[in-house]
Amino acid sequence: MKPIKILLFVFIALIVIVGIVLIVFKLIDANTTTNEPSSATEATTDKEYFNAVKKQVKAAGIDVYWTDSACVFVRTYDEDGGKALEIREKHDGAGCPGDPQFSPRVAAFRISKSNKVEWFEPISGRYTTLAEYKSSLDALPTP
Fold it and tell me: Tens digits of per-residue pLDDT, 36-54?
């Protein structure tokens, strides 16, 4: 009978500890600010970099589906003293259709230290202005 009491005590203690940890994390999460960085150079996460690029793309008058799609994700990496971003389609089989083993690149950008966003033009293999990105999209035939 004594080992059962010990096991019961340990089980109740674990439940209490897990509850306390969950409460602490909830409090920490509630006190975390959700302010977006004011510029791309202040961004620190992939999501923040992505939001900074989306903001500048929209400000340039570029209307592309990926700025409002939940079916894309971003990869970032350091490049030439700035940050490079690859925007890719997400195929999860649920809300985002397509083969989950493929994630085609939709666009790529670079954010310089001076907060300038440049588009990676895949034909020439060089970074160029958002104005050139817009004109390349405008030149595409409409379905």
Answer: 444 555 567 888 888 889 9
